[in-house]
Design goal:
Blueprint: E1 2-6, E2 10-15, H1 35-55, E3 62-64, H2 66-69, H3 74-85, E4 89-91, H4 94-106, E5 114-119, E6 124-130, E7 133-140, H5 144-151, H6 159-173, H7 178-185, E8 187-191, H8 193-205, E9 217-219, H9 220-231, H10 252-266, E10 270-273, H11 278-288, H12 299-309, H13 315-334, H14 342-354, H15 366-377, H16 384-395, H17 415-432, E11 440-448, E12 451-458, H18 463-470, H19 473-480, E13 483-487
Parallel strand pairs: 3-4, 5-8, 8-10, 12-13
Antiparallel strand pairs: 1-2, 5-6, 6-7, 9-10, 11-12
């Protein structure tokens, strides 16, 4: 995975190559890496090293996790890997492996209290989080490869085999006495390929619109249903389940049972999924150093600013549109025209900062381009429903009747009205800032006689802004049930 960063202003992933090697396959009781998976891993490392040289990536960090860390012949493998690639490989300790998963999770979600689950091929780590800080760390040899080989080696999984795996997971997790306590007051966030695959499958099973699984909530009941469906199929046919990648088809059932065991042991209702993983954790720990722990103070705010900064838009314009929209939002709430929900306010702010990023594609239809970029770039810290609302606000910041469209299945009761309000305010603010020079300093809200009057504060006459904003009176009246009047300065 390749990241680019412009100081601490913004960063993003710009490339990735991936090859599943299952390095822990066949280790069994011997604890030794086997020749065939070693050869697969060495070939992959060789390709990755060539890729880095060809792409001019000089700052490279190669890390190894539990399977190599615990292997009796790890030193021999590491010597071969270095000889083939020239790359030094950092074998992560159990604590460091859990650290990077924790860093990825807490910097891509709003988790404050709860547990981070990282399920790999060889092991599973659980990290308790209290006030965003790490507390207890535990690791078990419950990886998807290991559990498949030990408990579900046959093409079909019998009820007896599944019961044995379930009981084994429950016994192991019994060592973590803090897990139930953490589950009683917090959330469970999962990282890793198995978790992401399960989320995609659950999302497809629910026939939900999909633009990634960042922030997706995998409900315990949905996981139970997915396990039942997978268990009824022979391993080769599990890839036919929508969302299950072919390379994970034989391992996904065991991985799902392990995740199910954590939900059960902790009393969690759901698993929140993040698309960030150990690799993002390694990068972010370096990017945020020397902070200890390496935490972004405000994940949602940083997520929006990071996306906005990646595109060559007019930052002053976007900030001023946000200020105008939020001031109207607050004043209308104070006047009793809406509840002034702080989460709704934050979504409006995010849409205002991002409404013009589509200009980087093309000015024509840039509102549609903004919507596409918001949906597909992702906004860590926001749930899919929230990302969809932000994207729809950006979509309707110029014209059209605000609609949830095909994203409606993600929404809650009242979200159409929320979209109407925020789209109206964003559109009015955009028109007040039509000249892109911050000439309109403020729009003072006066509510009287069934109407809303905006008194513009400016150092000069602003006929263009006044005219443009007045053209949005229909969408404003639809949202707030009041007529809109724009009064110029003076």
């Amino acid at each position: 995975m390749v990241f680019i960063a412009h100081g601490r202003r913004w960063w993003r992933r710009i490339d990735e190559i991936y090859e599943p090697v299952r390095i822990s396959a066949g280790m069994g009781e011997s604890g030794e890496l086997q020749r065939e998976p070693m050869d697969r891993a060495l070939a992959a490392i060789d390709v990755f090293a060539h890729f880095c040289r060809a792409a001019g990536v000089n700052d490279v960090r190669a890390v190894a996790t539990s399977a190599i860390r615990e292997a009796g012949n790890r030193d021999a493998f590491l010597r071969e890997a270095h000889a083939r690639s020239g790359l030094p490989i950092d074998v992560l300790s159990r604590e460091d492996e859990a650290l990077y998963s924790y860093v990825a999770a807490v910097n891509s979600t709003t988790l404050r209290d709860g547990v981070v689950l990282d399920l790999g091929g060889g092991s599973m780590q659980l990290t308790r989080v209290v006030g965003r800080a790490r507390r207890e760390i535990a690791s078990w040899r419950l990886g998807a490869v290991r559990m498949t080989e030990r408990f579900l080696p046959d093409e079909r999984a019998s009820k007896k085999q599944l019961r044995a795996l379930t009981e084994h997971v429950a016994r192991k997790l019994g060592d973590a006495e803090w897990l139930a306590e953490a589950g009683a007051s917090g959330r469970l966030v999962g990282v890793g390929g198995t978790v992401r695959t399960l989320a995609v499958a659950a999302e497809k099973a629910a026939d939900m619109p999909s633009f990634g699984v960042q922030g997706f909530s995998l409900q315990r009941s949905a996981l139970d249903e997915l396990i039942a469906e997978l268990a009824a199929l022979p391993a080769p046919e599990r890839r036919r389940v929508p969302g299950i990648k072919p390379e994970r088809a034989d391992l996904i059932l065991a991985g799902a049972v392990v995740v199910q065991g954590v939900l059960e042991a902790g009393g969690f209702d759901a698993l929140e999924v993040t698309e960030a993983g150990l690799r993002e954790g390694v990068f972010l720990a370096s990017q945020l150093a020397p902070a200890d722990p390496p935490l972004v103070p405000d994940v949602r705010g940083a997520s929006v600013r990071n996306l906005a900064a990646q595109y060559d838009t007019d930052e002053q314009h976007a900030q001023h549109v946000a200020a105008l929209a939020l001031s109207m939002f607050d004043a209308l709430a104070a006047a009793g025209l809406h509840e002034g929900d702080p989460e709704e306010r934050e979504l409006l702010w995010a849409a205002a900062l991002l409404h013009d990023i589509g200009v980087s594609v093309d000015y024509d239809d840039h509102h549609r381009h903004s919507r596409y970029l918001i949906l597909n770039a992702g906004l860590p810290g926001f749930a899919p429903r929230e990302v969809a609302l932000i994207a729809q606000m950006a979509r309707y910041h110029r014209k059209g009747t605000p609609s949830l469209g095909e994203l409606k299945p993600l929404m809650r009761k009242g979200d159409q009205e929320l979209l109407d309000r925020c789209s109206a305010l964003l559109r009015v603010a955009e028109q007040l800032e039509r000249s892109r020079d911050q000439t309109v300093h403020e729009a003072r809200v006066e509510v009287e006689d069934g109407g809303v009057r905006l008194a513009l504060v400016a150092d000069e006459e602003v006929p263009v802004a006044q005219w443009a904003a007045e053209r949005q009176s229909d969408v404003f009246e639809r949202a707030f049930g009041r007529t809109l009047e724009i009064v110029g300065p003076g």
